[in-house]
Amino acid sequence: MSSAFHDLHAPGRLLILPNAWDAGSARLIEDCGASAIATTSAGLAWARGYPDGNALPVPVLVTAIAEITRVVRVPVSADIEGGYAGEAAAVGETVARVIDAGAVGINLEDGQESPELLCAKIEAARRAASRAGAPLFVNARIDTYLRALVPPEQAVEETIRRAARYRAAGCDGIFVPRATKHDDVHAIVAAIAPLPLNLLAVPGLAAAADLRTWGVRRLSAGSAIAAAALGITRDLTSQFLEHGRSDALFNDPIEYGRMNALLSARAAVP
Asked: Which of 22, 78, 111, 265 has the fewest CB atoms inside 10 Å of its own CB, making it the most exposed?
């Protein structure tokens, strides 16, 4: 399964990766035809009653990943934010538990922390994967654009500089959320080759066919699908509370029987 996930990032391909937040959403995403699934740290945390931002307890994370991998047959990559720890050794322990829960890939982000720290975390993740005998796909998220860590005119240079360090530390891919301009993306793709570049779906981003010609090899939904689902929940609930009318609740739901059928075949507890 792990090598199959690596293969989905081959040159010339674009892996479109929807992000699930629980077992039900993951199973539905798989049924829609996804060749792999990622978790959304935000959606998963919200579904478990925690805010996004490294607040999710590791046991809760691991349980959620195990629930997802139990009901799907496609590869699952887990967004583990900054590893839920400031110490690389602790991140390595978390990665070992995530692998044991069935994930074949992880996202690790630098955020506001130093690149040196993410390098140490990537190295710890690689050691954990080696001990487990798992060819884990480590996707290093660089937040130069997402968090405006440097002035815009320095974003490409700083992204490339960090990517080189993370590649040396052992990552398998580079994720640059909020990079959208052709020239920026083209420069990053050329600099990190042969590693694949992962972009985040955002309003105004070029179409998938164009991204493929740019050399992008992975496109993630991030928290967008989970946020949209919660937005629909908010709107329907507000209307129901205000008017007490039922019709809008049944405009376009997933069929009860279909959802039950999707999960019934995978219901056995291992």
From this structure: 265
